[in-house]
Amino acid sequence: QVQLVESGGGAVQAGGSLKLSCAGAGLRLADYRMGWYRQAPGKEREWIGGIRYSSDSGLYSDSVKGRFTIFMDNAKNTVYLQMTNLKPEDTAIYYCTAAGSERDYWGQGTQVTVSS
Questions:
Q1: What H or E segment, with its residue span, contains residue 13?
Q2: What gap in Å lies between CA 52 and CA 88, rounded to an integer?
Q3: What are the tens digits of pLDDT across the range 15-62?
Q4: How many angstroms separate the CA atoms of 43 and 46, rounded?
């Protein structure tokens, strides 16, 4: 069964850090364009960044640039979202995606809550 399994969400105070993981099962993440999205309550889903190769520095939305970093560990078949200097407005459900030539895959989402 092909799936993306996310982990690492939780509650943190403003200024803190979290690292989210997205592990691939049944697919090799290095073959896909990997991305992260988030959806806050009452808001539309927002793209926050993506990476194509393990050596890629990634692209980021202005809302997270300089604070979030996406990187890939091919040996673990896992993509990470390192989040630093978290703000209350970063509170959302975070999703990873794998975009392929034939279809896309989405993770189940993981909740991140940042308190002030």
A1: strand 10-13
A2: 29
A3: 999 999 999 999 999 999 999 999 999 999 999 999 987 778 889 999
A4: 8
